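Dear Dr. H.,

I hope your travels went smoothly. While you were away I took the liberty of generating a structure for the chain from your last submission, since the lab meeting agenda had it listed for discussion. I wanted you to have the full record in hand beforehand rather than looking at slides cold. The sequence, exactly as received, is reproduced here:
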Amino acid sequence: MEAAAVVTVNTDNDVVDGDTSSVAGINADPGPDAVTSLREAIEAVNNDAAGSYIYFDSALNGVSIKPQSVLPTLVVAD
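The corresponding predicted structure, in token form, is as follows:
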């Protein structure tokens, strides 16, 4: 069985400047800011196979993430 793909949100910024084609893509190329936003994580997980997970870096504990616009719908696998 293949291990689930994991992407970690590590910024409260709402930007998309990395490779959101897949979880592997955003992990390898988070963009010039070198961090992964919640929006990027959702886009990458939605573009990836079922079984992907979004984690949050512990540095964001207590931090509010304030999207600049409506976030994409998170597609949940059965």
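Two observations you may find useful: The helical segments are 23-28, 38-46. The first helix runs from residue 23 to 28.

With kind regards,
E. W.
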